[in-house]
Amino acid sequence: MARYRGPVCRLCRRENIEICFKSERGFSDKCGFAKRGYPPGQHGQSRRAKISEYGIQLREKQKVKRVYGVLEKQFRRYFKMAERQKGITGENLLMLLERRLDNVVYRLNLAASRRQSRQLVTHGHIRINGKKVNIPSYLVSEGDLIELRERSKNISPVLSSLELVKKNPPPSWLGFNSDKMQGKVIAFPRRDEIQFPVNEKLIVELYSK
């Protein structure tokens, strides 16, 4: 499946937000956004032109796509799913993205980044209710049990990430047993648990045109 393979800190600088969340994991000095808080490219430091209403909406959509590592076609599918659900479309969209398996693995601190959690999933390290699931876009449900396969519990990326659990605990909709390296979906995520600044109404307005 196609995905962005370039430097993630370039995206941080483009969207004016720390997409890689390295500071959240104790690596604030490693992100290019902290060192160069201006857009990438030859003219990044020059004065920006005034952004149109459409441009503001577009940047909000791009920011959310890049945080969750989703490309346009898949993002549109999530939006259509959110429209069909009861409730507020923008919030439904964010909740669907939060329920992605690669995001859940990241939120459980089994990986230092969403990119790393995606790799854990695609390489077959993750089990859901005892069965291997290697699809990063898999949507978890209430009651699902997420765990590492037995021989994957001692790999160094996982162990180093688990050290950060106390500093950055999982959200309340996820339970986690650090001894068993096992997480559980207690409930569906709530809007107030989204960790980064986003105005989802702008995305709805963009797709409503």
Give me some keywords for this one.
single chain, 209 residues, alpha+beta, Ribosomal Protein S4 Delta 41, Chain A, domain 1, Structural Genomics Hypothetical 15.5 Kd Protein In mrcA-pckA Intergenic Region, Chain A, 3 domains, five-stranded antiparallel beta sheet, 9 helices
CATH topology of the largest domain: Structural Genomics Hypothetical 15.5 Kd Protein In mrcA-pckA Intergenic Region, Chain A
The computed structural class is alpha+beta
Q: Strands of the biggest beta sheet: in what spatial order?
A: 2-1-3-5-4
Distance between the ends: 29 Å
- The appropriate CATH architecture of the largest domain is Roll
The tally of strands reads 5
Question: Over all CA atoms, what is the radius of gyration?
Answer: 18 Å
| Helix coverage percent | 25-40%
CATH class of the largest domain: Alpha Beta
Low-confidence stretches: 23-28
The fraction of residues in strands falls at 5-15%
Mean pLDDT: 83
CATH superfamily of the largest domain: RNA-binding S4 domain
